[in-house]
Amino acid sequence: MRPIATTRTAAGIPTGRLAVWWVLASEIVIFGGLLVSYIMHRIARPEFGAHAAHTNVWIGGFNTFVLLTSSLSAVLAHKAAVGGDGPKAAKLLYATCLGAATFLAVKSVEWTIEISHGYTITESAFWSFYYTAAGLHALHVIAGAIIMLIVAETAKRNLELHRVELIGIYWHFVDIVWIFLFPLLYIAK
Amino acid sequence: MSEHVEHAEHAEHEVNYVKVWAILLCLLVVSILGPFVGIKMVTLITAFGIAIIKAYMVAKNFMHLNIEPRYAIYLLLTMLVFMLLLFAGSSPDIMKHQGRNWVKPLVHSQAEAPAHH
Question: Is A59:A113 a contact under the CB 8 Å cutoff?
Fold first, then answer.
């Protein structure tokens, strides 16, 4: 039997989803503070553009494609869960996890290339921001993938299907953060 | 929970997710090709203008914020306002080297250093 706390809130939103919105609200402050700081320094220091010229827009673009596609599979998993098809939702969540793994693998190769060329986190203020922002984002990708695997395990037995939507909302937020990181770190040169 | 399911089902009938995804990919291609035009304003629009559009599309169509009670939207917008407050409060100190009654000693000493040699 589902606890009553998951079905009632004063806000008119199911408690689990409300909790996710609050998590995302705190995430906006975390990533927002970082990105606003980056933008201020980027405008004040023209040399940031020269440093950003060493990032690879095609690798960043490919990872954006991967995350957008993983968002599609996450929302299709939600659609399957709404239709009561837990096993299908689980398969789509596994596909989303595959997207997360691809993103992280590409990111690992990219960082290896950059570090081998001497662009380490202590190289300049730009590279400090680059590794901090992209690294923090990557940690969120890892956390999201782990939670998604746990949710998929219950979903494939048609249990706790509302969780599919909750992890999906989180995943779309991770996608949105990358949508802003991509032009800041890869395009604005 | 029933309200949640009704909202979600409503969204299922309204949104073609694959079509939204295809539009997002087209916008991604435009944002990558924008800098090749070589005009700074075009790059800014294709990079950051399109990023805002993509974020809006994901929030509306994938996160279903358009059918969520206003509480969630107000909550998220409040945090975005905090971001703007951070920018407004600290940008003069970061983006300028001196003001009416203050200077950055380090920046000034670096600027004056060549004159001493």
Answer: no
In this prediction the ipTM stands at 0.92
Residue A32 forms contact with B (CB below 8 Å): yes
Nearest to B52 by CA among A150, A182, A157: A182
CB contacts of A35 in chain B (<8 Å) are 83
- Mind listing the pLDDT tens digit for each residue in A39-90? 999 988 888 888 889 999 999 999 999 999 999 999 999 999 999 999 999 9
- The per-residue pLDDT for range A133-155, each reduced to its tens digit, is 999 999 999 999 999 999 999 99
Cβ pair B87, A39 in contact under 8 A: yes
| pTM for this model (two decimals) | 0.89
* Distance in angstroms (rounded) separating the CA atoms of residues A138 and A127: 16
What's the CA gap between A133 and A138, in Å, rounded?
9
CB contacts, 8 Å: B79 with chain A: 25-26, 28-29, 32
